[in-house]
Design goal:
The chain contains 14 helices and ten strands. It is an alpha/beta fold and 298 residues long. It is flat, with a radius of gyration of 24 Å.
Length: 298
């Protein structure tokens, strides 16, 4: 459990350490609002609520805000997501990654979940549960997966190492995205037919006027003689930004009509697609990089 004080409001919980440090009231109030905003909790809505009125995920975020209140140089998080359901856990992990990009602090994150460690950690320390808890291996996620120190680490990592590698690689790690034939979603059927004769693909990617991916359209959708693609084909329900993992890309590919994952920029505009071959090339390159000796001081 996150250990919020049940008899105190959210604002009072966050203010615990600053008040012990005798901060001025105006500084405390400003810090409370700043942190609640950072955690995606609207101060006007949440500052006067009590913990019992929050969901498990919201309580976790308030706990992180309280830990950050006095701006410590290092945060210790001891299995912070262990008591929430899997969907909330995944969402909190993603939010922690986004938060870390903003605050850029050292976080010592304790977990028994190796997948969580691989997803969140820049460096992973594996300790053995015996007298003294000896350090078995301390490495980057990539080197941990590519070169386990011994059988204990190998067993601890478990099966599916390739999929675990996909979890640490990001869309941004792909040197060059694949291209795909695209058209405006309001393009005429005649224009699409001409385009299909110049490509080997059975599908066309329809974009809106802001260059955002909207629909997959195939030749059969054009034979109906309709003048527009606005409501034809199949809608694109999942797109990936640069921060998405290649495991997420694989999941999107497996359910995609065109067996490809569509990527977008921060504004949702089309950037390119990812094929299965792209995943293979990227993972092979990561394997080579991870097995290379690291330079001293890195």
């Amino acid at each position: 459990q996150i250990g919020l004080f049940p008899h105190r409001t959210i604002a009072d919980n966050v203010a615990t350490v600053p008040r012990l440090l005798r901060w001025k009231k105006s500084r405390i109030n400003a810090r409370i609002d700043e942190l609640l905003d950072l955690m995606g909790l609207e101060p006007a809505i949440y500052r006067d609520r009590y913990p019992r009125a929050l969901s498990g995920g919201q309580k976790q975020r308030v706990g992180v805000a309280r830990a950050m209140a006095a701006d410590p140089p290092v945060l210790l998080m001891d299995e912070p997501f262990g008591a929430v359901d899997p969907l909330t856990r995944e969402r909190l992990q993603m939010q922690l990654q986004e938060l870390q990009e903003k605050i850029r602090k050292t976080i010592v994150f304790v977990t028994h979940d190796i997948d969580e460690a691989i997803r969140l950690g820049d460096r992973i320390a594996i300790l053995r549960q015996r007298h003294g808890s000896p350090l078995v291996q301390y490495d980057t996620p990539g080197r941990l997966l590519s070169a386990p120190a011994n059988d204990f680490v190998r067993d601890f990592l478990g099966s599916g190492i390739v999929l675990k590698r996909l979890n640490i690689a990001k869309v941004s790690d792909i040197e060059s995205l694949d291209d795909w034939p695209t058209v405006c979603k309001d393009a005429s059927s005649e224009h699409i037919r001409r385009l299909l004769t110049t490509t080997s693909s059975d599908w066309i990617l329809a974009l809106d006027n802001a260059n955002r991916p909207r629909r997959w359209v195939k030749a059969a959708d054009l034979r109906a003689g309709r003048d527009s693609l606005s409501a034809e084909g199949e809608p694109i329900t999942s797109v990936l930004d640069a921060h998405a993992s290649l495991q997420e890309a694989l999941q999107v590919m497996l359910i995609s009509t065109a067996s490809a994952a569509v990527t977008v920029d921060a504004d949702g505009r089309y950037r390119g697609v990812i094929y299965m071959d792209t995943l293979n090339r990227t993972i092979n390159a990561m394997q080579v990089d991870a097995c290379a000796p690291e330079l001293d001081g890195q």
